[in-house]
Write a structure and sequence with these properties.
The longest helix is centred in the middle third of the chain and has 24 residues. The protein starts with a helix and ends with a helix. It has nine helices and no strands. The chain is mainly alpha-helical and 197 residues long. The chain has two domains: 92 residues; 62 residues, Arc Repressor Mutant, subunit A (Orthogonal Bundle), CATH 1.10.10.10. Helix 3 packs across helix 4.
Length: 197
């Protein structure tokens, strides 16, 4: 496997070498490399967005995560890397960003990118958004929770209630709602591993 430190360090372009007659030597650009940072972005944005959308199931998170992949991956990358190396590096960065997203949401990384099942999102550069199985997976997880745990998570994350509004709807104190939410998220994270997110 190619490491980021070896292959994707940003290099400062050197000035053109000038021949004895004052004419700069021209460098041959291989077709298998990107010409600029914008072409890296244009060529990979749709693939990464479709992959993120398939994993999180909603447009705002998919857009944020795709943006995070590029902002994380571009600084250490260098343009002289081949397109395949750049795509592989972006995929590794996407795995890390996705794991961090789920760790922030559920308290532990619960998702991976499987090249066998996700290759269609990586190979199709454009088209409609991929179908997401996130709602079905969330339904399985919520279905496995006790009623009070399920209700607090539905209020907080599906109905977008504040913790105070959720506490009022459940007729409990705010501090009790916080504890209930914390316990529900931990149990949901454990169930998510069993459901094989």
């Amino acid at each position: 496997m190619i490491t980021a430190s070896r292959c994707f360090r940003r290099t400062v372009p050197s000035p053109p070498v000038v021949s004895g007659g004052g004419v700069p030597y021209l460098r041959v650009v291989d077709d298998d490399v990107y010409t600029d940072w914008e072409s890296v972005y244009r060529d990979n944005i749709d693939r990464l967005y479709r992959l993120m959308y398939a994993r999180v199931g909603n447009r705002p998170d998919a857009e944020d995560l795709t943006s995070e992949v590029f902002s994380t991956a571009l600084p250490p990358m260098r343009l002289s890397s081949s397109k395949g190396e750049v795509r592989a590096y972006l995929l590794v960065t996407a795995k890390t960003v996705l794991a961090s997203h789920w760790r922030r949401r559920l308290g532990q990384p619960v998702t991976t990118i499987d090249l066998d099942t996700d290759i269609r999102y990586l190979s199709e550069p454009s088209g409609p958004e991929p179908p997401s199985d996130a709602p079905a997976r969330a339904g399985k997880i919520l279905g496995g929770l006790p009623e009070r745990y399920r209700r607090i998570l539905e209020l907080r994350f599906l109905e977008a209630c504040s913790i105070k509004e959720a506490a009022q709807a459940m007729h409990i104190s705010v501090s009790n709602a916080k504890v209930l939410q914390h316990r529900a998220l931990r149990m949901a994270a454990n169930l998510a591993v069993e459901v094989e997110l």
